[in-house]
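Fold it.
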Amino acid sequence: GVEEMPRATGSVSRAFATASVSFGLRDMRTDPTAVGVYEDSGFVVRTTDNVGQYVSDRLGEILVHAGARFTPQPSAALEAELIDYQVAEGGTFAGTVRLRAIVHRGAGEPWSKTYVGMSKRWGRTHNPENFQEALSNALADAAQKLLNDEEFARSEERRVGKECRSR
């Protein structure tokens, strides 16, 4: 359902260009099989897929497309926590993805911020493809917010600048 890959702002692109990063994602949801609910009946929609792995792979692709370089000896660490990943199907498929990004700065306090992606499409079909499309679009929306966040760019720049001064 996502028509084009999220794009980074110039400052986020520059931050990615100055540092290699490690990336990891943890699925923090209390029920990792639940991906939605039918509003009229309260029925919980579940999956047998590994949602955390899917989101990790997809977000990793988005970050690389935006210029992130993942290396075994990184100069920065980006962790993501998947807090919410669901669709509420009523008169629409309303997807919500909530991610917390955490940038580690050596021994200092990490920087973190939560990003919420939303998606809405019409329908009431109980169709798995519509659930997947709503979730994919919500994930892309959350990633776009991360890649457009000047605070995120500055957290990377401070990390790299601190390392350069300590050498």
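The longest helix spans residues 128-147.
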